[in-house]
Structures are given as C-alpha cells and as structure tokens.
Amino acid sequence: MGTSPDSIDNLLHESRRFSPPPEFVENAVATAELYERAAADRLGFWAEQARELHWHTPFSDDRVLDWSNPPFARWFDDGEINVAYNCLDRHVEAGRGDRVALHWEGEPGDSRSLTYAELTAEVKKAANLLAGLGVGQGDRVAIYLPLIPEAVIAMLAVARLGAVHSVVFGGFSAESLRARIDDADAKLVITADGGYRKGKVSPLKPAVDAALALPDADGATGTHTVERVLVVKRGENEIDWTPGRDLWWHEEIATVDAEHIAQAFPAESPLFILYTSGTTGKPKGILHTSGGYLTQAAYTHRTLFDLHPETDVYWSTADVGWITGHSYVVYGPLANGATEVIYEGTPESPHPGRWWEIVEKYKVTILYAAPTAIRTFMKLGRQIPQRFDLSSLRLLGSVGEPINPEAWVWYRDVIGDGITPIVDTWWQTETGAIMISALPGVTILKPGSAQVPVPGISVDVVDEQGVSVGADQGGLLVVTEPWPSMARGIWGDPDRFIDTYWSRFGPTVYFAGDGARRDKDGDIWLLGRVDDVMNVSGHRLSTAEIESSLVANPMVAEAAVVGASDETTGQAVVAFVIIKQSHLEAASAEDAIPQLRKHVADQIGPIARPRDIYLVTELPKTRSGKIMRRLLRDVAEGREVGDTTTLADTTVMQVIATTVR
Ligand code: 6R9
C-alpha cells in the first residue's frame, strides 16, 4: 500500500496569514540573518551555537562533526563538557544565582520556588548522594517520579555524574517500568511514594515494588539489576518498605556533603535513554549524548521561544517523562538561565481554569503546550480562560501533533489576546530538539503549518523513491543532513536503529515516519504519522486533514479519524467526534452526523466523506497527548481493543466501545 498522501489537491485551503507585531520584531532574539549564516557555513554555524555553552575542554574546529560512520554521528567529539554545570553552576558563577530557576506548583496548590543558587545546591547534594550509592560515569538510573522539583534535581544529578538517566512516565504500569529497567540494566530507581493527579494521590512506589517482583524473561525472580530504590516523600500515602534496598531521599540527602565539583565528560558521553512507545513491539530506548544535544536544545529554546532570560517566565506544560520535558523543561531552559514554571497536575484539577490561574499567578510570558490541551479548552469554552488575566503572555508554542488551523486561531485569539505569535514546533524523541518551526519575529505565520526548517537543519519531502516532491505535493518527511541533537542509536540495538530510520532512503537520510506536504511557498504541513494515512478507493487521505476539517466546523471540539477496512473501498473513513459543550443541547445526534459528513465532503471532497461518525465524550490519548488511533481502529473494525497501558486514562476505551456498539 502506498503511504504518501498525495492525491487530493487543496486539502488544506487555509489562507489566513499573521505577521508578527512590530514591537515583537524590534526585540526578537531571532533574525532572518540566521538562515544566511547557517546556509553559508552549516558546521561553522553549529560550532558557534555550541560555543554558547561552557566547555571544560573546547572542541577543535575540525572536529565539529564526524559523519564517517553514518548513521552514528559524532559532534564536537574532542570537546569535554558537563551538562549539569552548564545548567547550574555557570549561572551562579556569572552572578545570576538569585534568579528563580523553577517556580513549582503542586496540584493541590502547594508551591516552591528555587533560585539558580538553590537548585545548584540541591543538585550538588543529590550528586553526592547518588555517588555514595555507587552511581558513576555511564551507569543507568531509572527515574519514576511525579513532576516535582526532585524530578529535575534527580535528572541533573545523574547528568552531573556522567551517568545516564531513563525517565519513565509516572503513568506507566509496573510491567512497562520493569521492561525499561531491564533493557537499560538500571542499578538505581528514583521514585516517590506517590504524586497528585486529578485531585488524588496516585501511588508510584507500589508500582516499583511490583516491577521488581516480576519474573524475568526466563521466569526467574530476583534477577533484576536494581540495587537501591530511592524514595521521595510526596504523596504521604502508605507504602511497603524493603529494608536494605529502599532509602528515603530526604533522610539520605540530609547526611551528604554540600560541595560537589562537576567533572568534565567527553561530548559524546551518553546523557539519557528515553523509551518511545512504538505502536507495536518492544519499546525503543532512544539514546542521546551530551554536547550536541545540549547545543541544539539550548539554541532552539533561545531562538524559537524568543527567550529574554532576565524578564521572561517560561512554562512548558510537558511532563519530564516525555522528550519535551527533557529538552524544553530541563535542559534547554536551564542551560539558557530561564525562569520557568513547572506544574505537577492535570489541567482540570481542581477546576478547569487551573492552567490560566497559573499563568496569571506567575505572569507567564511564554507558554508551550500540546494541541490536545488547546482543543480540550476549546471544548470547555472561552469563558473559562477569560476569567483570568493572561495579558503577560507574548508567545505561544505548540508541540506533539499537527495543530488544526481552528485550534491555532483559537489559541492565538483567546489565550494570546489576538496578537501573540505561535510557534508550531515539529520534532521527535529521536531528533532530540526542534527541527521545523517558524522563527518568531521573522516568519509570517500560517495556522496549521509548522512551516520551515530551523536554521542549521535540512529537511525534504520525498516520494516513495526518495525524489523530492514539487510544490503542493505530499510525501514523506526526511532529514537530509545530520544535526547535533540527533539520536545516537537505540540502546543495545544498533541494527534496529538503522532499519527503522536509516534504510528506507539510504544510510545518510533520516526517515521520520511522518507524512508531509510542501505548499506553493515551500512551507511544510505535517500530515500525521505515515501509519495514520488511509487509502480509500486508491485515494490517499490523511487523518490529520479530515480531523482539521471536522474541527473547523463550529459544532466540533475534537475529532479523531481512522481508516477502517472496508470491503468495497479498501479502507473507509471513520470519525470519532466530540461536540462542543455549547452545541450539545442545540444539536441532536441525528442532525449533527449528516451535517458533519456533508461538511467534510464539501471541504475536502466526496472521497473524504466519513462512512461513520460516532459522537463520543473522550478520545483515547497517551500522556503526551497523542491520540491512539490504533485503539479507535480496533473499535471501528469491531475487534477486541488492544493494549491500553500507555493511555493517560485507561477507562476511556470502555466508554467509547459502549458508545459504538
Ligand atoms: C516532540 C514529540 C513525535 C511525533 C512526530 C509527529 C508528532 C510532534 C508535531 C507533530 C505535527 C507538530 N508531532 N510535533 N506533528 N506537528 N508540531 O512530540 O516527540 O513524542 O517522539 O512524537 O509527534 O508525528 O513524528 P514524540
């Protein structure tokens, strides 16, 4: 089956354009000149970005990139660096120790702010604590924590020692946690008794106990690699204790030395492993290293979020269990000396205005969130954010999925007061940092399009043969030149790394797995994962385009589209739609469904008209906000629903399955 969505013209007829406000342009960090510099001397440009960091041992000009053994790149490889030093001590030594690094907000409303000096002191102690437990260069540490300051402290302490962290989402099951511990041979697990989610304490330590009690692949118990479990007290929930193995963080940290000198590590030292939940098969442990990763995380954070660290208050709503939490909660912002907000809980706890209350409280200026959250707020209605003072916001970001033009415009109008630029940032766990995004203050924005590669990055949209497609054509997104924050492999499985990403179009072309279209201006529109592309009577349709069309209808808050097998058309379009609160009474299901089918046919073409539309109240999503279309496809095809363990709310599928049957 073909995979590129290339057959229907004008699928996206979005013509709205937004220029940056003049005051924004005047003070913008990014300038159009960045493109020229990067194009004139790509490696020189990246070396310049890398030199914004502190190098214990500078790298040589002729060692910027070693690409002699693709796809295993080496960047700045004779340089030595300490990632945590760059995020902490450097700012304190430069006299910025009194600046707030973290404003942490707990879900129940407790809060704690740490300056750079305080955060540095905490990380030094934590590094001594971990070193005392035998953690050293190259050792793997699993982190299974809620979003509390200790999550950031633990990650930086591991990095400071040249060890490797593997952060596992607090929402993952004991089985998933154990699989990740085993794959990485972690010797230490850092967890909490529990954390707050949706107004309740959600236990974590019991899942660690259960994970470590599970039999290994050969059926044997007690064979795991974990020597110690370090437990942060947060939820105050009852937990079991294994003496000799389990240790309280607060007790141990009280006994260690406060001073710790950061050592230099080679630029290519592993920094972290992060597992991506593939649709099938064993999760992939994506490996990132130090110097190149930090270079691109910091550079993109500074330029794409227009960071003015003295005055901005930045908030990325991502959890640290997601790549966005690594690059744009921990490493990018802290390397840049930003003041940022981190929030433990869910957007609706204890009330649906919680996020906007936090924006008002901390006078957040830059907000980075996922389209799924934006659509949820659209569903609830603009009167909720309008109750809060959001006038501090001056830049908005989006990540995780294509943002439908309607959601984009709503975000700008309602949250951004009709003036803030929006950066729609495309990237992946594997790319480590943002790859495609508008430059705020430079690019004229198009709602729904991620637009242009970041200066220094080279991407293309190609057909099945790897040939660049023309204007207004769809195809597959590829990255054609190596980049500093690229994954260095899949942990323990170099062949799978090559097979998955570097074999389809040759050993130096990165296949991202996303469909994309380039419009007449050369701007890139992401069309969703290639496996989300449908083939209806030989026409290739993208789930993202039909979803955007549905969301553009005033009745619709959210939509998920899947291709279900169909005897006559090969696949048929099946849509799951959430109707906005304000339209629920007005529209009866009998009226809404035919209207929406017609709407899609009118907007895109009769071929895209959904065969079935189901009205639902929730969609199945992962904790990073991605709709799990695989599960909806199971429902649409009348199958038993598959593995739901990575869903944020595992009950959603039962509700949907009942609605449909
Ligand atoms: C950062 C992150 C990667 C996949 C990626 C793509 C989708 C992310 C997007 C986007 C369209 C954007 N994606 N950002 N699609 N526009 N701005 O999400 O990493 O969890 O590894 O997911 O997410 O499909 O391939 P990760």
Automatic annotation (TrEMBL):
Catalysis performed (reactions): acetate + ATP + CoA = acetyl-CoA + AMP + diphosphate
Keyword Ligase: yes
Cofactor(s) needed for function: Mg(2+)
Keywords recorded for this protein, A-Z: Acetylation, ATP-binding, Ligase, Magnesium, Metal-binding, Nucleotide-binding
InterPro entries attached to this UniProt entry: Ac_CoA_lig, ACAS_N, AMP-bd_C, AMP-bd_C_sf, AMP-binding_CS, AMP-dep_synth/lig_dom, ANL_N_sf
GO biological process, alphabetically ordered: acetyl-CoA biosynthetic process from acetate
Enzyme category, top tier: ligase
GO MF annotation list: acetate-CoA ligase activity; AMP binding; ATP binding; metal ion binding
Binding site for Mg(2+): 551, 556
GO cellular component, one term: cytosol
Residues where N6-acetyllysine is found: 626
Any single Pfam family the record assigns to this protein: AMP-binding_C
Modification note: Acetylated. Deacetylation by the SIR2-homolog deacetylase activates the enzyme.
SUPFAM superfamilies in the cross-refs: Acetyl-CoA synthetase-like
Residue sites binding ATP per the record: 400-402, 424-429, 514, 529, 540
Family that this chain belongs to: Belongs to the ATP-dependent AMP-binding enzyme family.
Purpose: Catalyzes the conversion of acetate into acetyl-CoA (AcCoA), an essential intermediate at the junction of anabolic and catabolic pathways. AcsA undergoes a two-step reaction. In the first half reaction, AcsA combines acetate with ATP to form acetyl-adenylate (AcAMP) intermediate. In the second half reaction, it can then transfer the acetyl group from AcAMP to the sulfhydryl group of CoA, forming the product AcCoA.
Alphabetical list of HAMAP family matching this protein: Ac_CoA_synth (MF_01123)
Name of the protein described by the UniProt record: Acetyl-coenzyme A synthetase
Natural source organism: Cnuibacter physcomitrellae
Taxonomic placement: Bacteria, Bacillati, Actinomycetota, Actinomycetes, Micrococcales
